[in-house]
Design goal:
The protein is of the alpha/beta class and 350 residues long. The protein is built from 12 helices and 15 strands. It has an 8-stranded parallel sheet. The chain is elongated and about 75 Å long.
């Protein structure tokens, strides 16, 4: 049982982050900022894939036009990613953005920080502070000698204090590193030091395969500890693939339960059916199923109703056939080429 960390709650558009709100999955557009049509197209693709919050970079005033177009094209919250120009943050607010990602210490004097804080407060827009191991302040690197969880945590709290000074507390914090051990330790540390909602992610995680593994290890470990309020799986890949990856992590740790959980054995010499293909077919055909059930696809009777007795429905392979079972009780034998269809019929009846 996961005991979720108690955090304050903020709201980005129509989506709540933190508190007892659902843990959301988000992504970021990777189309050049000046390409309005391309950004809108990708944002719509992400929304269709289930993305719940979308972010895009706003490096200059021209990019605010792209932000405005994206905001008016999608129904999910839109986040403006700002690095150094506080005026871009102010113009993004005027364009109707739902959330700002900015590190106050990067934008200059107190009057600039106050201007951003006041504008966001006026429009009920939260600010995410995003600390990254690759851009840690020089004085903190000198203090700690290298990137450490403590250095990342101190940096995040320093940025937060600059907003708190102007009575702004609608803050979300992320502390990202490409090193999974540093990332998880940093988040555990910040989770003890503040009650702000936390955006989880392993930055620069890599290509689809390794990036997914590193993200699952880091994000998954923290979620199991009850830490995390929104997640992004950062992949060197099509951003749409990040959404499925994020939801898969939530499924794997037992947080997302409005879908089937598929259990299948790795096969062995006893297996006399093409179980690998069958398991893949079952997974594919259940992609849009929202029943909270456990489905077992097992290679033989040894791993069948016995080891998978907790499954709601399942199949155990025989010699060119399969034995359907429900809650550990055998239903009937079916031919190998009928297994998937017959299994799906039983699932539909549940």
């Amino acid at each position: 049982m996961i005991n979720r960390r108690i955090s304050r709650k903020v709201k980005a558009g129509n989506v709540e982050i933190g508190g007892d709100s659902k843990i959301t999955v988000q992504s970021m557009l990777n189309v050049p900022a000046e390409d309005v049509e391309g950004n809108v197209k990708q944002a719509l693709e992400l929304q269709k894939a289930g993305c719940e919050i979308v972010r895009l970079t706003v490096p200059n005033k021209e990019a605010v036009k792209t932000l405005y177009a994206v905001k008016n094209a999608v129904s999910i919250p839109v986040v403006a990613d700002i690095h150094f120009d506080y005026k871009c943050a102010l113009e993004s607010v005027e364009a109707g953005v739902d959330k700002i990602r900015i590190n106050p210490g990067n934008i200059g004097s107190d009057d600039r920080i106050k201007a951003v804080a006041d504008a966001c407060r006026l429009h009920n827009i939260p600010i995410r502070i995003g600390v990254n191991s690759g851009s840690l302040e020089k004085d903190l690197l000198a203090k700690y000698g290298h990137v450490t969880p403590e250095a990342l945590c101190e940096s995040a709290l320093r940025h937060a204090s600059l907003l708190e000074k102007f009575d702004f507390n609608d803050i979300v914090i992320s502390i990202k590193s490409s090193n999974v051990q540093i990332m998880t330790a940093a988040y555990r540390l910040i989770a003890e030091k503040c009650d702000y909602p936390l955006h989880l992610g392993v930055t620069e995680a890599g290509t689809h395969r390794m990036g997914m593994i590193k993200s699952a290890a880091g994000i998954g470990a923290l979620l199991l500890d009850g830490i995390g309020d929104t997640i992004r799986v950062s992949l060197t890949a099509d951003p749409v693939s990040e959404i499925a990856a994020g939801f898969d992590i939530l499924k794997a740790v037992g947080i997302k339960t409005d879908c089937p959980q598929i259990v299948s054995c790795p096969t062995c010499g006893r297996t006399k059916i093409d179980l690998i293909s069958l398991a893949e077919q079952v997974e594919q055909r259940l992609q849009n199923c929202h029943k909270p059930i456990k489905v077992a696809v097992m290679g033989c009777v040894v791993n069948g109703p016995g080891e998978a007795k907790e499954a709601d429905i399942g199949v155990a392979g025989g010699d060119g056939c399969g034995m359907l079972f429900k809650h550990g009780e055998i239903l009937r034998k079916v031919k190998e080429d009928e297994i998937v269809d017959e299994l799906l019929k039983e699932i539909e009846s549940l």
